[in-house]
Design brief:
Elements: E1 4-8, H1 12-24, E2 28-32, H2 35-44, E3 49-53, H3 61-70, E4 76-82, H4 86-94, E5 99-103, H5 107-124, E6 131-134, E7 137-140, E8 145-148, E9 151-153, H6 157-168, E10 173-174, H7 176-184, H8 192-206, E11 216-219, E12 223-226
Parallel strand pairs: 1-2, 1-3, 3-4, 4-5
Antiparallel strand pairs: 6-7, 7-8, 8-9, 10-12, 11-12
The structure holds calcium ion.
Calcium ion binds next to loops.
Length: about 230
Amino acid sequence: MSSRILLVEDEPGLVLTLSDLLAAEGYQVDSAPDGPQGLAKAGSQHFDLIILDVMLPGKNGFEVCRELRQKGSDVAILMLTAKTQVVDRVVGLRLGADDYLAKPFDPAELLARVEALLRRVRKDKLTPVVRFRFGDIEVDFEKAELLKGGTPLSLAGKELQLLHYLIDHRGKVLSREELLQNVWEYQAGISTRTVDVHIAWLRQKIEKNPQAPRHILTVRGSGYRFSP
Ligand code: CA
């Protein structure tokens, strides 16, 4: 799915140019001509990134940025500042902007910043998986169902939670401590040994050969890593 970008900018010429530029790169672009409308749109629709001009009618970019962060929005924000106002970028970053670009800018530079920010956002927020398929396994975390070669398998609640966490963080090395903290939330009487035991149970159920696992891998000295 293509990323959605909100452009909050009051110069019609620049809105047109940037919208075309971003759309040509495959982004879905929406725009707002002033601070209040920018805030309203950002609050009512999902955007992956906001390109926010500082000098805006109604409410300036700083105010918009601050209000968004105060409302708990963690959308990526790229601020457009005036070249002469060095203080702009300092203030902007302090108010929660992720990056800034001084006007006038090279369109290629803008695209590079947008791409880098979106990449960062995607990496930070690996979307939690609801349904996932790997090998001959199909798992639906919403329905708490797991099929192996089309046959339903029963998994205990903790096994399913552990598998969910492993899949959500696939490719990453996860320490026993991290798993303990996030899957068991440090319940009393639980130790890292519990993690190992549950991993072994999961392997028994989902791996073709639990002695030589293909999906739930041991990373010596570090923990575990899920490989689809
Ligand atoms: Ca402006």
